Amino acid sequence: MDVRLPLTGAGMCLALLMGACSPSDEKAQVSLEEKTARFEKSLDAIEDPKLKDAVAELGGSLLLLERAQLKLDSKPLETEYSDDALAVLKHYPTPQALVDTYINGLFVLHKDSSSDYLTDLQPVFPFNFNIPDTFVFPHGVEWLSVTLSNKRVIGFQPEWSETDPGIQLSPSSSNLTNPDDLTVTYPFIDGLDVDNKHQPQPVSLQGKVEVIAPRRLYSFNLTKKDVGQTRSNENLSVKLLKLEKNYAEIEFSNSAPMAAEVADTPLNPLIVQARDSTGQFLSRSGSINETAEQIAFYQKQLALLQQQKTWSEAFEKQLESQQRAFEKQQTRHYSKVYFNGPIDALEVSVLDFSTATVTRKDLDLPVRRFDPRTTEKTIQTLELPVVVYDDQAANWLKGATLSEDQLKKGVSIRQSVDDPSAAQIEFDHRRSFNDELLGSSFNPGDSPVSFFTEDASGKRDEPIELPPEAFQVDPLRGTITYDLNLFPQTPAYTVGSIPLFLASIEKKTLDAGQLPKGLELKGNALLVDMKAFPEQDWRFYARDDSGNYLKEILAVSHDASPEGPALTGVHYFYGRPARLETYQRIDLTTVQYGFEVKLDKADTASLDQ
């Protein structure tokens, strides 16, 4: 959670942060709940709707800030790692080079819909500026129209219209994770079967994009010894106010005025990352971006609002004038950033928007079709004029050498007792690259499970004799389901073992010019004979001359033979591979995970007597 005043939608924001705190914060939580209740009651007494909205917005934001602070301070300190938020920028010599890659690496995929009346279009970006905990350049994409195969141009409309009888282009309602996805909707004719393959097809998508690149990004490396010190580089400066176990307080400033291009654009130019003693990046748990002085100012404005009986234009101007005057005095910016784990060192980076480069481009993108499985014999090209790296690959591929102990240590156990007749214990583990190569031929072996009562001191006591139907073990899904109706005594513990599966994986590195039969590189595409290298046993990763892993754009399989399965797999990369890494599963081992689980208590009042 990143909190910055002033915020809108106070009611919604408060709802997002509702939740229990630790027992030590119970008094503070009660106080906050009481304060919230009093504030909501005071809102009911305001009759002027504009005044009521203004009070709700500012007062709700202050309550949100207080609740966020309470939750961040009370969060248990559990180490959780993250990726380098600046990794993508570090691959390019300037911010502008990153912007050019973002724009020039964009293309559009044609995707079939489950409906005969719909065709989906998916704009594919080489990377996403909106990943949590990463930097953001001001940017925007606006879609304007689609050109069909009959040369008709359909204009974009912000939502599908039920009364429009023609072909429509509007945002997709089926994919909330990709907000840029679009849908071409063909008219529905009652009583008439329609095959949209006979409709004019989308051939190009028109739009425009704008991205603003900062002059530069500069990073300061700080540790505990830098507390109280100001570090500067040209017009940028950073002061480490405090560095505690899991949070840091920082002031930063840019002595140069903001570029006119971003003067009215909300910016957060600060990226704070932390490493622990292992050197790995810690994930962020949130931040507070207001000083005590700023909070006091907003509280004063809220008090002034609450004294009013009606809203007036003159009063609005007074508030705006006060806020402008106050913000003008704030030459330095503040951030208190929390991390999931103990901090050893900080990397504080600042985007310098004292000058900015605005890149605008009109888009006319061909709509490409790459079905996941096709019977086409011709292999399409998909070579884009950019190089993009996969910064998660190296960490993901550590799973190729996963050991039994690592696999067991990664197991988490969840219980569900909401339905006592189907109570469940689930054994899960953090997904890794090893899971990709498990295949489908499992030998789970035996899964012995016993249930026990507890003695007066709460320790495990006698085993419970049970009929076979009292519980079921699903070894492949890692679940135990039990029916308390069939238990003569209340169980308190369960003991046994559940199988885990571990692939033995062999890695080889191959030069692009010396590939074995069955593997072939054509530009940025890797062609794989899937009879020689079956998909369930093999994975392929590519590096270029820099040694970095190339990001895969997409993969398809060509089944151009009537007598067998898909023969050729094609992997497309952003860039030309210089070396391939092959990963082959050569064995599959069953690992028995022994457990003793203290059972959650179920509400047995509804069970059969």
TrEMBL record:
| Entry keyword Coiled coil | yes
Q: Which residues form a coiled coil?
A: 288-332
What keywords is this UniProt entry annotated with?
Coiled coil
Asked whether the keyword Coiled coil is assigned, the reply is yes
Top-rank taxon, per record? Bacteria
- Could you tell me what this protein is called? Lipoprotein
Source organism: Pseudomonas gregormendelii
Q: What is the lineage of its organism?
A: Bacteria, Pseudomonadati, Pseudomonadota, Gammaproteobacteria, Pseudomonadales
